[in-house]
Amino acid sequence: MQNYATFKDLEDTSVFITGGGSGIGASITEGFLSQGAKVAFVQRSDCDEFLSKVSSQYKYKPLFIKCDITRTDDLKNAIAHASKVNGGINVLINNAANDTRHTLEEMTSAEWDEAININLKPHFFSAQAVAPMMKSQGGGSIINFSSNSYLTGNAGLPAYVTSKAGITGLTRSLARELGPDGIRVNTLIPGWVLTERQLKLWANEKDLAVTMEKQCIKEHLMPNDLIDSALFLASNASRMMTGQALVVDGGVAVTG
C-alpha cells in the first residue's frame, strides 16, 4: 500500500464500514488499518483473499461480519457486535452500494425498492445505531458515500442517482440533528472510480474517453484516490466540517 497522510488521532479508534471488503470499500478499510484503527466491516459476499492480504500487515486485524445491509436488524446486530469487539463506534462509513444499470421503462416496483434498500436506507439505520454510542463518547464522524452521478444527472440508472441525491439530504439533516452531540456528518462524492466491477462491466473505451474529456485532471480515478479524503473527514483535522459534500472526481462536477 502507498503512503498516505497520517492522522494520529485515528489510531485505536473504532471504525465501521459497509461494503468494506471490495472495491472502494476495501481501499478505505486498508486506509484506516494503516492508521492503526480498529476496523470492522460488513458485506454480503466472502472476501477471503482481501482478509488474507491485510490481516497481518497492520496493528489490528480487521473484523469481517457477513451481512446483508438491506436487513436492518442484521445490520444493527453487526454494529452492536463490532462495538463489543472494538469499542464504541467512533467512525461510521456508509460505503456499500449497487449501481447496476437500469432504465425508467424497464424498472419494476420491486427493483426500485431493492435499489433504495441498498443505496439509501442503510445509511439512515446505521446512523441511528451508532448515534447513541457516539453521543456517550462525546462525538464521532459519519461519512456517507454518494456519487457525482446525481450532480451530473447521469442517465441509465435513475433509482441509483435518486438514492445518491437522497444521501446528501440525509447528511444535511443528520448533521443538524446530531451536531449538538459532537457528531459530524458529511458526504463524500466520488466520480467514476475504476474498480474491478466497473472495469469488468461498464468501462468501455468510448465512455472512458467521454469521462476523461470532462475531467480537469486527466487521470482516471482509482479506489485508492478516496482514502485520504475519507481519513480527513474522519479525523479531527475536519472537526468543524459537518453537513458538507466533498467531491473527489477529477474536476467533473464543480460545487459552490
TrEMBL record:
It comes from the Bacteria. PROSITE patterns: ADH_SHORT. GO terms for molecular function: oxidoreductase activity. Keywords: Oxidoreductase. It holds the Pfam family adh_short_C2. Belongs to the short-chain dehydrogenases/reductases (SDR) family. This is 3-oxoacyl-ACP reductase. It comes from Candidatus Pseudothioglobus singularis PS1.
